[in-house]
Design brief:
CATH architecture of the largest domain: Sandwich
Mean pLDDT: 81
Low-confidence stretches: 1-11, 14-23
Structural class: alpha+beta
CATH topology of the largest domain: Immunoglobulin-like
Helix content: 25-40%
Strand order of the largest sheet: 1-9-8-3-4-5
Number of helices: 2
Largest sheet: 6 strands, mixed
Shape: elongated
CATH class of the largest domain: Mainly Beta
Distance between the termini: 63 Å
Number of domains: 2
Order of helices and strands: HEEEEEEEEEH
Strand content: 25-35%
């Protein structure tokens, strides 16, 4: 094996290790459109930048009605337990974030039986204490705010539909291209085989004719 493939394999392994090291926590934009009478996940992720530093975090969710100016406490998760703080969401909120750890990075919650009254602005707040030493701590706060809309049924955007259509067109196009390539290769191989057979037949006839002439010359000499 040459050195180039070995180097490429080594780079690929290093890339996978880097992805595994940094891919444990990925901050994504939350969905903002819920369907009435169905469940909906309120996503909120705050990735800790230095994984080697110990940390303790808590998550607070707040809600603001479209016609209100201030947020009201909605849900709090700390020390492995969640508390619903808004009666409008009583028995309808479940923790979907990090579990079995005090170093929370995923603060997502899940709303069951979404209603049109759930439409509004949601605020997720991470309160994280970074523990560098026993005597040196740093407090950090991360906030994520977004507006959630509630619709009677899920609608698809034109961009989503066009993307799906283009995906199917690409798949069909690739299949057609593969079929054409297979036919072309088959014809090329078949033509090469026929040419080889013709050359073999020509060589055989030439050898046979030469052998016949040699035999005739031998008989005349005798």
């Amino acid at each position: 094996m040459s050195a180039a493939p070995e180097h490429l394999l080594l780079l690929l392994l290093l890339a996978l290790l880097v992805l595994q090291a940094n891919g444990a926590c990925v901050e994504l934009e939350p969905d903002t459109e819920a369907v009435a009478n169905e469940g909906f996940k309120l996503g909120c992720i705050s990735c800790k930048m230095r994984s080697e530093v110990r940390a303790v975090a808590s998550v607070n969710w707040s809600f603001k009605d479209p016609d209100k100016n201030d947020f009201s406490p909605m849900y709090r998760y700390s020390d492995g337990a969640g508390v619903i703080m808004d009666e409008r969401f009583a028995d309808r909120l479940n923790w979907r974030g990090s579990k079995k750890t005090k170093d929370l990075q995923d603060g997502s919650i899940y709303i069951t039986n979404v209603t049109f009254q759930d439409k509004g602005t949601y605020l997720c707040t991470f309160s994280r204490k970074l523990i560098y030493t026993e005597t040196f701590h740093l407090e950090r706060e991360y906030k994520k705010e977004f507006v959630m809309n509630v619709v009677p049924r899920l609608t698809r955007s034109l961009a989503s539909i066009l993307s799906e259509v283009m995906m199917y067109v690409s798949i069909i196009g690739l299949q057609v291209w593969l079929v054409v390539e297979m036919i072309y290769c088959y014809r090329k191989i078949a033509a090469a085989g026929e040419e080889a057979l013709r050359e073999s037949a020509t060589e055989y006839l030439a050898v046979a004719s030469e052998s016949k002439d040699n035999c005739a010359a031998v008989q005349v000499a005798e």
